[in-house]
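From the thread on structure requests for the teaching lab: each student submitted one protein with a one-line request. Submission from student K.M.:

"Model SDR family oxidoreductase from Bradyrhizobium diversitatis, tokens only."
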Amino acid sequence: MASPSSRYDLTSRTALVTGAGGLLGRQHVAALSEAGARVVVTDVGLAQAEAAIAALKQNAPSADLIALAIDVTSFDSVRAANEQLSGRGVSVDILVNNAAIDPKVTSAPGVTHSSRFEAFPVPQWQTEIAVGLTGAMLCAQVFGGAMAARGRGVILNIASDLGVIAPDQRIYRQPQVTREEEQPVKPVTYSVIKHGLIGLTKYLATYWAGHGVRVNAISPGGVFNNQDPAFVERLTRLIPMARMADVDEYRAAVQFLCSDASSYMTGQNLVIDGGRSVW
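Reply posted by the TA:
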């Protein structure tokens, strides 16, 4: 029987993280690299991927990281990336679908916010769905399909606590904004995409259950990143642990879900939100 620590060992496995240039994307890369994986660091532009690698190398100079540009909204781009890796003898064992557009909720008096549902632009809906949900589907098609053909692999979809609960729009309200139609809100797309990722997780987990591919999701709560103190105060009132997450607090969960430590787990959504969804 393998020791508990060895079940987390990802040595000899290759992981690919989409949207890896972002705040949590870099953390996912670091988590997988810490566990011994070679990590393909991808973003829509090669410069973003290379910048993420440069930052990560400062603390882990020996990390085995590969920069690659992928437009997750394009099947041709995803397929070309897979072919490029295959040409270098690289097969993806772990796919982390992290790419997303997370609109920041801001407000300025006198501005009618397109984030409000009644005025939400269809092009914005299509763009955000294309990145956050269609992109995960396309990457799963290409990289997950190859895993299924080999009989082994792991897919981790990065959802959100807002894929489990609805946004509490009260935490985004601005007291200086007097007209209700100008109050900022979390856009409809974010919750729809994150709920959709959990549905995609369950679908793929059963679809590939007989092909050795496990598919799970993680639903993180909000990460503290020097947000407006008033917003942080309103949000933390909704969280039993009374704080937002530190940026590195999801690393162990990623290691667990991407390794043999979770070998009998598939189709599940691991909620790590400080207890917010319990209340």
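TA comment: The chain has seven helices and seven strands. The first helix runs from residue 23 to 34.
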